[in-house]
Specification:
Layout lengths: L10 H20 L2 H10 L6 H31 L9 H31 L2 H32 L12
């Protein structure tokens, strides 16, 4: 596998970024519905159709996040990514930390959810639930960093994820 620093993100990089972002946003907004499904099934009740649909949507969207993230990591490894924009050392370290933690979360959170749901491992479920505030914080830091590059530094950082030049 070759690792290069292309001049810009490819359309595939960009599509994967936004598909994963949309899936994570869906999970943050609607993910709590899985608890309703779990409670109904645990209590021996019959959940209504919306609860079943939303609970299953949470599972399938989580699997999609995992699968798309694996594809994204393979694309990064094979084709590389553009070099980071010039910034101070602390900013560069913060960006690397946020990106690294996001990738770790995009892999481990769906896995812990699957282990909790299908394996019945309570500890995995607790770890999975802790991920929501983590994703909110990391996403907020990621968005703020992108806006900082676009608005304060005016270096076009945000636009790199909208257009493959």
């Amino acid at each position: 596998m070759s690792r290069t620093n292309p001049a810009s993100y490819s359309p595939l990089h960009i599509a994967l970024h936004w598909l994963i972002a949309a899936a994570i946003l869906f999970q943050l907004i609607f993910g709590e519905r899985i608890k309703d499904l779990g409670r109904a099934l645990k209590d021996g009740g019959t959940p209504d159709a919306i609860t079943v649909f939303m609970g299953n949507a949470h599972i399938w969207v989580g699997i999609a996040v995992l699968a798309l993230t694996i594809v994204r990591l393979l694309v990064r490894a094979r084709y590389g990514v553009p070099a980071p924009l010039p910034s101070s050392r602390p900013q560069e370290l913060a960006a690397r930390a946020v990106h690294g933690l996001l990738y770790i979360a995009m892999v481990l959170v769906p896995i812990t959810g699957l282990v909790a749901w299908y394996g019945g491992v309570h500890t995995a479920g607790e770890i999975h639930e802790l991920a929501k505030p983590l994703f909110i914080i990391l996403t907020a830091l990621h968005v703020l960093g992108a806006l900082y590059h676009q608005i304060a530094l005016r270096d076009g950082g945000l636009m790199r994820m909208f257009s493959a030049r």
